[in-house]
Design goal:
A seven-stranded mixed β-sheet has the order 2-8-7-6-5-3-4, with helices on both faces. Strands 9-10-12 form a three-stranded antiparallel β-sheet, covered by helices on one side. The longest helix has 23 residues. The chain is 40% helix and 14% strand. Helix 4 packs parallel to helix 11, helix 5 crosses helix 6 and helix 12 runs parallel beside helix 14. Strand 6, helix 9 and strand 7 form a beta-alpha-beta unit. By secondary structure, the chain is α/β, with parallel strands linked by helices. The two termini are 29 Å apart. It is built from 14 helices and twelve strands. It is globular, with a radius of gyration of 20 Å. It has two domains: 117 residues, Aspartate Aminotransferase, domain 1 (Alpha-Beta Complex); 203 residues, Type I PLP-dependent aspartate aminotransferase-like (Major domain) (Aspartate Aminotransferase, domain 2). The structure holds pyridoxal-5'-phosphate. The site of pyridoxal-5'-phosphate (PLP) has 12 residues, from helix 5.
Length: 359
């Protein structure tokens, strides 16, 4: 079967499964903010339209200044990109022909981008039920790699590694002369994240990658940034196509950052919905990953392969993310985004129906 490599665009999964798309579907396969974009964006949408006749600022100066204030870091430590995905790609380009270590299961773009850059790749596998990461387990492998990619909180498990674990890894990587590429695409989906950004000033081997498309629900606009030592930022920027970030995205990001309550409101909403969903699943005897963010892994322990549940949900218009292309998961879990309360309630109704048929 031709499994799509990412969530979103549900028509591809229906096609791969040879199923008709129901009239009403709810897409749980993309991990974006269930509240949608900040209101300020919609209110100013027509004003943003006027930007289409200008070339974007190739130096992204205005947004850089905003993010520099937001992150309390000098502008020359920042590179704005066309989504976290572009920055991952630029980092992989910087690592051309090098050896990299990936912690699995994780976001598939690290492997894809590193392969394109002809890197040789080694893996360290984490395991259920907790998918814990222990820096000491990586000591030997770090010996002969040039970079470690780490996603925190991790996609697809939603597990958040402690600041102490990350700092230990930054130091270990420094000792071994390798880079730590820390993808924090979902760091702001939890109230409990301790920022790693202050460490960038001291550790020139650290690269932090941020996405703005998740929190501000603008994956169609493409926005992200990297934080690293100026020498790394200069190198990444030299690989970036001119005008890579479009004018509307630049202006939209500026507006999103003006809404100072938005992130806190989102975190509260997600935490409440997650609590509701998790206690329901536990009552129903389903197994979950210990997620701290806006998505989680789920399985029916009565099934070896989750394909029957996946099909059952798709037929009823519920679209989870398959896990076939996550090493170590291979379809034995399904990933769900936390969506609006109404959507989550609908998901619970369909799961109840499933459990009635297969108690
Ligand atoms: C862990 C992680 N990092 C980065 C990205 C890329 O995000 P974007 O390019 O939309 O900023 C994604 C998208 O799903 C992701 O899951």
């Amino acid at each position: 079967m031709n499994w799509p490599s990412h969530g979103s665009n549900p028509n591809y999964i229906y096609k791969a499964m040879n199923l008709n798309i129901p009239d009403l579907i709810i897409d749980f396969s993309a991990n974006i903010n269930p509240l949608g974009p900040p209101k300020i964006l919609k209110e100013n949408w027509l004003r943003l339209f006027e930007k289409v006749i200008d070339y974007p600022d190739p130096y992204t100066s205005t947004l850089q200044e905003k993010i520099s204030l937001h992150e309390q870091i000098d502008k020359n430590f920042l590179l704005i990109g066309n989504g976290g995905a572009e920055l991952i790609n630029l980092v992989a380009r910087m690592l051309t022909n090098k050896r990299v270590l990936l912690i699995q299961p994780t976001f598939s773009e690290y492997e894809q981008s590193c392969k394109t850059s002809n890197c040789s790749i080694v893996f360290h596998q984490l395991h259920s039920p907790n998918w814990e990461l222990n820096g000491e387990d990586l000591v030997d492998q770090l010996q002969d790699v040039n970079a470690l990619f780490l996603c925190n909180p991790n996609n697809p498990t939603g597990v958040q590694y402690s600041q102490a674990t990350i700092v230990r890894l930054i130091k270990l990587c420094k000792e071994k002369g390798c880079h730590l590429i820390l993808d924090e695409a979902f760091y702001d989906m939890t109230e409990t994240y301790d920022s790693i950004v202050p460490f960038v000033k001291e550790y020139s081997n650290l690269v932090v990658i941020r996405s703005m498309t998740k929190m501000f629900a603008v994956p169609g606009l493409r926005l992200g940034y990297a934080i690293a030592h100026p020498a790394i930022i200069d190198e990444l920027s030299s690989y970036q196509p001119h005008w890579s970030v479009n004018s509307i995205a630049l202006a939209a990001a500026d507006l999103c950052l003006q809404d100072t309550k938005f992130i806190g409101n989102t975190q509260e909403y997600i935490t409440n919905e997650r609590k509701k969903l998790f206690s329901f699943y536990q009552r129903e005897g389903l197994v979950l990953s210990p997620s701290r963010v806006n998505f989680y892994l789920l399985k029916d322990p009565g099934l070896k392969d989750q394909l029957p549940l996946f099909r059952f949900l798709l037929e009823r218009g519920i679209v989870p993310r398959h896990t076939v292309n996550f090493p170590g998961l291979k379809g034995s879990w399904l990933r769900f985004a936390i969506k609006s309360s109404a959507d989550n309630n609908q998901l619970m109704e369909v799961i109840k129906e499933w459990k009635k048929r297969r108690p």
